[in-house]
Amino acid sequence: MQKEYDVIVVGAGPGGSTAARFAAMGGAKTLLIEKRQEIGTHVRCGEGLAKGLLDMAEIPVDRNWIACEVDGARIISPGGMKFEVDEAKAGNETGYVIERDLFDRALAKLAGEAGADIKVKTSALGIWKENGKIVGLHLISNGEKHDVRCKIIIGADGYESQVGRWAGIDTTIADSDIMTCVQYRLTNIQIDSKYTEFYAGSCAPGGYIWVFPKNENTANVGIGLGAHIVKHGGEPKEYLDRWIAKQPGMKNAVQLDMVAGGCSINAPLDSVVCDHVMLVGDAARMIDPMTGGGIAHACMSGMQAGKVAADAIKAKDYSKQFFQTYEKAWRGKIEEKLFRNWMATEKVQKLSDETFDKLIGLLAEVGMENISVFNILKAIKDRYPELVKEFEDLL
């Protein structure tokens, strides 16, 4: 392994591979490291992806990693009311349901083709400092320890990110801003493979249940519960199992796998950079608090961080001040939406099943051209003004 790079990216998920790709494209000598021996393994994700992301991040469509193309999304209330939107209006989680392992490898391949070096089974052990200044990373690769110099570190090491903590970036969040998730891949089920589905209400306190089709009889079926609501570790699985048992189309379901873990659903962090370090995607707590989706935000922030890293190398300026270009770029695209969705999620968690039925019934009746928390609340205000009183600060 070489002993010096311009940029080291920690984590070869969508955000990390995209950051490495754009840093290398900009001329930076770049290393992308992944702690696992295979990129794309052990994915905790519903695997929904907006088509618009692919153009934005210059990702070529490859049918090999597209499991299913959907027409839109349905939000279903406890009483069975359905609000249906097409994929163009449904946000960042609808359009394609992908195979994340193949998608992640495709993005890493793009990074490699752009000139980035890639090392798997390579973990960061800590940030290397000299005289209080960050000069690189302590790594371990295939059991062998290395100290590798670099000018910039991009942390793309996910929800459990250590890069941010080592660098002194405050990424701590409250229990109420964490969602505990369990997901199965089920086959031999009856589903509408043209729609992703979201179920809200008491079936998933503080969160929701999702069904993301992989084909005509297979889907990712998962649940996210507010961590502050969960009383013991097995509770999310218990809620999901109870819900599945009540679904006629899933009575003969066969479970192919199960993944579990946490994700952040917080307001945007005050800062995701410091001298020599930028965080992207889940490591920067950029998951959408309303939907739990993170692929689009990871790729977008990775692209912006990679471009800024390349510019910083050319300018020989690796300061927090220079990295404000990155802060402004990602905040300009998603900060307002993340903050509004965080505030809305805090309030939605307290709604009764009866209220959910009213809201979803209304939305199904009036329809909507542009789906957003703001527009939904405006529609509700016209019909049920008493329900919007708690949401006035979002209008």
What do these coordinates show?
With 395 residues, the chain is of the alpha/beta class. The protein has three domains: 4-47 and 100-173 and 268-343, FAD/NAD(P)-binding domain (3-Layer(bba) Sandwich); 71-93 and 175-264, D-Amino Acid Oxidase, subunit A, domain 2 (D-Amino Acid Oxidase, Chain A, domain 2, 2-Layer Sandwich); 348-394, no CATH class. Helices cover 31% and strands 29% of the residues. It is built from ten helices and 18 strands. The radius of gyration is 21 Å and the shape is globular. The N and C termini lie far apart (54 Å).
Rg is: 21 Å
Order of helices and strands: EHEEHEEEEHEEEEHEEEEHEEEHHHHH
Averaged pLDDT: 89
CATH domain topology of the largest domain: FAD/NAD(P)-binding domain
The count of β-strands is 18
Mind telling me which CATH architecture of the largest domain this is? Answer: 3-Layer(bba) Sandwich
List the helices and strands and how they pair.
Blueprint: E1 4-10, H1 14-25, E2 30-34, E3 48-50, H2 51-56, E4 66-69, E5 72-76, E6 82-86, E7 95-98, H3 100-113, E8 117-120, E9 122-130, E10 133-141, E11 144-155, H4 163-167, E12 178-187, E13 195-199, E14 208-215, E15 218-226, H5 235-245, E16 254-264, E17 273-274, E18 277-279, H6 295-315, H7 324-348, H8 353-366, H9 373-383, H10 385-388
Parallel strand pairs: 1-2, 1-11, 2-8, 5-13, 11-18
Antiparallel strand pairs: 3-7, 4-7, 5-6, 9-10, 10-11, 12-15, 12-16, 13-14, 14-15, 17-18
Helix pairs in contact: 1-3, 1-6, 6-7, 8-9
